[in-house]
Amino acid sequence: MPQMVIIGAGLIGTSIGLAATKNGLTCTFIDANPRNQALANQLCESVASISTTNERDLVNLVVVATPVPEVANEVLAALIKYPKAMVIDIGSIKTKVLLEVSSKVTPNVLSRYLGTHPMAGREITGPEGARSDLFAGRAWAICPHQHSKKDEIDFVEKLIQSFGATPYQMDSEEHDEQVALVSHLPQLLASLLAGILHGELSLAGQGLRDMVRIADSDPALWGGILSGNQLAIKPLLRQISKQIDQLIDLDLSRESIEKVITAGVVGKSTIPGKHGGVDRDYAKLPVVINDKPGQLAALFTICGEIGVNIEDLSIEHSPQQATGLITLFVAQADLSTLINELTARGWQLHP
Known about the structure:
Elements: E1 4-7, H1 11-22, E2 27-30, H2 34-43, H3 53-57, E3 61-64, H4 68-81, E4 86-89, H5 95-102, H6 107-110, E5 113-118, E6 139-143, H7 150-162, E7 166-169, H8 172-195, H9 206-212, H10 219-228, H11 230-249, H12 254-268, E8 283-290, H13 295-305, E9 312-316, E10 323-330, H14 335-344, E11 348-349
């Protein structure tokens, strides 16, 4: 019998099912799209459906993973349909949902609801893009409210940790303000920039591609998300607009531009480590590699042999170029070991 019901068989919902199944839990999916529901159930080897009252009473967790405009209604329905289950959602706005749910249920029922939000995703949407390791190393917000119970918060937190994610507790208002800045505003700015692209773009480089990467997004999905969090987003848009106006008023003077760029450098340095996880001050080591098969594999093999973990990397290489530059990001304590070993083996380094 399923321990978990997942409402919404999209990328996140199906990935939660895969991660849960990997950890020995059983689940079943409910989705308005029969194809997505069938595919998610098949991927997770799930029970096809539950129908009786006794079966529903055995469910101890319901995950609402629908588009944001549907979340509150699905949470309310789940709290009634599964009277013994904890109900969580994974939507990207929390305050509006909490207010809607709390206005229609008693405090005792509300205590079984907990808003959460995994900071994870992929360009590939739907159950086809689902991965059991999608949440590994990712931040996952948990937003308790005044009627939340500690044992149920602990239960959800342990589940999130079992998926490889790092849980962060915060109230719903703080969550919405944070995601407005780190997720919603970047989406809007990327889309605004991509929206003015026209004409000959043969000189487009990596900077432009990096800026508009997330612009290729689902308009309906983001319409629901951004309109639902407008109270937190609008002040940020006004701030950006004010700064742009100031640049224009100052005729893009050198001093005004340097001030903007300097502020950007400082701001970027405040972003936590990989995937929004725990902040780490990594050392970086640029290594010149020859453009031939096996070079990357050989480099990674050496790191493995000496016990140095590559935390992140970047590669710069142009077509027809005989060499490339790979920058390895490693723990500060491992840098000297890596430099000594690679130097001894004849690699070209630029520390």
